[in-house]
Amino acid sequence: xxxxxxxxxxxxxxxxxxxxxxxxxxxxxxxxxxxxxxxxxxxxxxxxxxxxxxxxxxxxxxxxxxxxxxxxxxxxxxxxxxxxxxxxxxxxxxx
Length: 95
Fold this sequence. Notes:
95 residues, mainly alpha
């Protein structure tokens, strides 16, 4: 039983950094594609006829959008970096 758990934990340690990077990439691509919907009829009614793709017209972007972008960057950089070093063997001290 313990040997089987060890096998799965080693697999998770090897695939973890890749998964963290991919999750951050998916969130970041969602933030990048979000402005493509600004030329819809609902947005034009709310923000004026000046709105188009990547031009919001009279509306503005809230702080949640920027926090999501920052979270995506953190997931790609920090979490992946931490996961890369979590699988390293620690030094064994004699005490």
